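User: what does the whole thing look like in 3D?
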Amino acid sequence: MTSQAGLDRDRFVPRAGRIRGWVDLYVTMFRIAILNNIQYRVANYFYMIGMIAEPVIYLVVWSTIARQQGGQVGGFTPGQFAAYYIVWTLVRQMNIIFTPYGWEERIRQGELSAMLLRPLFPIHWDIALLAGWKLVVIVMWLPIAAVLTLLFSPELNVRPVDIAVFAVAIWGAYLVRTMPYWILGMASFWTTRVGPIFQLMFTAELLLSGRLVPLSLMPDWAQRLADVLPFKWTFGYPIEALIGHLPDAELFGGLAMQLLWIVIGVIGVRIVWRFAIRRYSAVAG
Amino acid sequence: MTLPSANTFAPASQPAIHVDALRKTFNVPVREAGLKAAVKSLVRRETREVRAVDDIGFEIGAGEIVGFLGPNGAGKTTTLKMLAGLLYPTSGEALVLGHVPSKREPAFLRRMTMVMGNRNQLQWDLPALDSYELIRAIYRLEPSDFRKTRDEFIELLDLGDLVNKPVRNLSLGERMKVEIVGALLHRPQVLFLDEPTIGLDVTMQKRIRSFVAEYNQRYGATVLLTSHYMADVQALCRRVVVIHHGRILYDGELARLGTRFDATKTIGVTLKEGMVDLSAYGEVLSSEDGRVTLRVSRTDAPEVAGRILRDLPVADLTIEDPPIEDVIERVFASGSGEPVGDDDAEGSAAVAQG
Amino acid sequence: MAGREPLRPFVLAGRFFRVGALNELQYRANFAVQLFQSAIAAGTGLAVLALVFGQTTNLNGWTQPELLAVMGVHILMGGVIATIIQPNMIRLMEDIRQGTLDFVLTKPEDAQVLVSVREIRIWQAVDCLVGAIVIVVAVVQLQVSFGIGQALAFAFAFVLGGLTIYCFWLILTVGAFWVVRMDQIVELFEGVYQSGRWPVTIYPGWLRISLTFLVPIAFAVTVPAEALTSRLTPETLALATGFAIALLVFTRWWWRFGLTRYSGASA
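Assistant: Here's the predicted 3D structure for the full assembly of 906 residues, as structure tokens:
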């Protein structure tokens, strides 16, 4: 009972179900990511707890300065610094993306070849896997946020629209950040020395994204630079959206900027991929 | 077990795999040992051109199972990777099911699969069933049809509860079984199997072999198989392509390989008592436990056997073709593709290009 | 640990250092990478300091050169931890897990000393260099007379701090290995250690106490920095000394106790 090659079209979901196919694929990948994450939940909790040291330190430093300078600095009171850095801990988790180091490992282990055999562009896998992981992280974060709130008494004036925009912005932030580092990761096809470039980019991001300090505390030239780079929209913008610091124009304008950077990123990925795959297929396979 | 019954030669329609003048060269950096050479290499990188695959061509019809034989570095895996779309050919033409593999069209990727022995493509920490769902979603398989195929394969390989255990908890052989099911769930028409049974015990090897044969029979898939285990090739393939130094030395029936390349026979003699030096009769290959193995030319074999039977007190005498492994080894060792022995018109691709 | 030859640990450390150095010097790439990373980290730290002092003239009474000194000590101590302490603890954890600690226990040297000094990641010493440079710059900027007394006080406080952190690590490694994995501890520690970038006096009470006695960051970084900046009081130094000695004694006991529970390769 041999089936003829070519009469297999009925085995695949028809074209009409294309969107459903994508949704189904992403949901399945989320499921796998969640199942994987649950296996390592203890390790992940440790990882998350280790991550709160950084913002707590900044919080204390800047609150101290604020109190010394008469109650506020850079437009932030100690309570607002607390709010900033507590929301920071969630945004930090949402910012985690597939790094160039991951690319090096993936190439070395031959995993990339296995991925290339599938009819799926690898970035979908990277995005979906970490996205599913983040779904679990959001839940795990709530008790941490509660404890930090008790300890540091944040000041928040939040409107429902702020929360709604924030809910969208944290995912937008994730997508915005994914692309540049994915493109940098592809540099692994040409060189093994991606590390230093990554570090430089990461340091620039540290300073210009609002991760180290709220951007209003940076010198003017830095703030203007941050406006034209994608980093601000991955970190500082979502935080300020939630803690009630943004007027409506900036609130929604930020989402538009995120969309812009996502589109730029997608175009960049497609262009670089074409060269990258040619390079990979020429030498490694 | 019986050989698969799908037709092997003279495909009537378009061949499943078409390769013509395919070539792949790599530029490998060259550096000698020593400090001076190291310093020199900082300034100028010298490269050497390595021809991994050098002008090969063949055609494989739908439903054939073809074995790809060759020592390490012969170009087998490189060829397979080019056919799978992982490597770009330097020149020449390759067509699989009418597609150019290096274009990596989704339609092509959906109809093929590549299994590399010892490589895990399933999720390590999760049961295989979860990975199968992922495969279903990636290949956009119709759910009920997918389930039918999946259950059919699970039963064929007698996996039972293995698919419910995390893959990391399975033994090597069990892992290979669930991996190969995963590789075939989308019912590809072309299978590239690169050392699929490596590291497995004999029972498991047989299981995998029979599964591949069964799949080939049920779905008429074309299989290109490389293996170090002759047992794999002998069990599954009627036709073999022998490749060495990137060139095809032989492309034809496995059964004829011995005839083509080795015009010798092996005579095994067990004497009733005592030990006698049989080197007068032929080349002594081994002599232990009272059994002596001789190598003599094919034409002389009957006559030598007769003489031994006449001259000596023989308890047992056998005349055999030399094991295929030895044939192949000697072909590679000599490095030449010179066929020895009867030369019938096979009508297939390059022989004696060595 | 003292025994008959109080200097034995340092002699051994020196021997391992030489071997380790010879090995690691081959990996020149590691040095370059580490230099790059340390430079970037220091640069980022300086940027933060600049931001802080763009807004104020002192932080909780500490001026800019004084905070620079703290940063220098932080980097220097971080280098020591990364070069000697952490690699040994990581290896110790592996040995416990895999039962290969037997090889150490059967050697004629004191086991605790051996497991504490045998691993060196020499390229991390770049951090020590960077830290030292920052300290020198800070001291110069302080523009006070920096005499022998102060230098000795600093050296003494620094050694105490190093020993305190070492004890902390050993207690954690021996005590917690069956609960958590090593890389989790390392990550957690590295996070908490960042708090040492600033003098612990700026932290609220409960946090300050934790960072003094729970994870001894205060003794590792702040106290030596106080010595550099002439803030060190005899009381603090006495406390540091007492705490270090008590911790060393406890660690010794804890180590012995852990060994009795160690089941060896048969586990």
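In plain terms: Confidence is low (pLDDT under 50) at residues 1-12, 339-354 of chain B. The two ends of chain B are 34 Å apart (CA to CA).
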